[in-house]
Amino acid sequence: MSPYQTHPVEIHHLKHATPDYLQAALTVVQNVHKFKGKADILVFLPGENEIETLCSQLRRAKLDLEVLPLYSLMASKEQKRVFQPSSKRRCIVTTTMAENFTTVDKETRWISNVKYVVDSGLRRLSYQNPRTRMDMLLLTPVSKQQAQQRAKRAGAFGPGECYRLYTKKCYKELAEDALPDMLRLDITDEILYLKNEEGSVDLTEYGAGPENVLRALGDLNDWGYLDDQGDITRLGRDAASQEFPVHPVWYRVLLEAAKCDCSVEMVSIAALLSTRRTVFLRPYAHRHVADLARQQFGHALSDHMSLLNAFYAYCGLLKEVEAGLDVDVEEWCTDHFLSHAALEDALEIEGKIRDFLREHRLIKAISTPFRSPQYDTNIRKALARGFCTQTAFHEAGDVYRTVHRGDHALLSRTSALLDKNHQWVVYHRFHLVAHCRQYLEVVTAIKPEWLVDLPCFQDERWARPRDGSGDAIQAVAKASIDEARERMQQSD
């Protein structure tokens, strides 16, 4: 059943623009609750912090109203509260995740009593700076198409009303559609697929910016997927398979893992970092308790292995449940501040990767014994070599500089490596928070000896002043690599 677009929705705009959309949302919800019919209210805000702030304000107002947050990083048990019937009018405060419900079933029936929508007109959208490889989650206006989708939620089962927290003039100035992924995200996978299918193509014809294309081509060359002429290699063709269920860079990482006798563990790590959800939950109101819960899975040298520890604990619990243990798995996840949905996603992705590797016989499934002194080292080495373009060098305190760009970044506040001052690290993500601070997320300590033979750490690849003279911009990091190379030569 697809009930949307069948009932009229009355649209209200602000007469004057307001910079405080949270206060405006609070005022509109209070007025709707006081003066309008008893149907539920659905509020669209850009992110978790704004949602929790408005929910807190509504609860403090002591209205006869059940206030329910709904966003993707919530525990699934908490999300399901919106599916349960209530004797009170409800105000559901959500992100973009409620825009595209198109069927009515047990998961979306809650929307059947929504007749009033409050739309901030804002969302957070992911971008990547191709020059620095830094991810940014930016507050941006919605498109007209998104604004219309939000309004339609009020007319799912009868006439409704939508209160937009922006003026009619602002609506007319909105873009018709959201910016294409090609213009704002990493496009290495798209370029590799095109190279595999079409060979020599003008990649800018597909809407990508020139800088995005150059960065992607450079990374693909460093990973061994393209040769120096830009032609796809045999390795690149294997990684470009449309059946490979994760980003192509993981194929290189899995190859390195096989050489380091840890491909079994790396398949699990690839799955965990390929879900669209966060494994470790950190709700703002319970963040300190969540941080304590996370420590039981922590690994002193590797956030990647902290994730692996949590995943293996979950898989071990599933085996015990299959054997007859009476445990509520979702409740266990909630108690440990783990996302049940993310772990289930990872389990599914892991199975798909294993099936692909088994069917194509490309990478051997091999594992170092858990109690071996080399268990941790092998995994860390494989990560370092696989993600050679995502390394950073310690500068001072918890400040690192990315290699080879030299951009400053802090370790994530939830990293197990915080305050440890490891000289070299490999990271999964470099991102901007709150328009001012740059962080490395999911970090593992590594050794420079593991990098010295890789193309992107040879002398000619170190960035230098524009005139080409003088020492490398990252002179200290280069010296560390040179010293490691000398140590290895002396030991041979």
UniProtKB/TrEMBL annotation:
One Pfam match: HA2_C
One function term, GO molecular function aspect: hydrolase activity
Keyword ATP-binding: yes
Keyword field: ATP-binding, Helicase, Hydrolase, Nucleotide-binding
InterPro entries recorded: DEAD-box_helicase_OB_fold, Helicase-assoc_dom, Helicase_C-like, P-loop_NTPase
Entries under PROSITE patterns matching the protein: HELICASE_CTER (PS51194)
Keyword field contains ATP-binding: yes
CDD domains, A to Z: SF2_C_RHA (cd18791)
Helicase C-terminal domain mapped to chain residues: 27-207
Stated name of the protein: Helicase C-terminal domain-containing protein
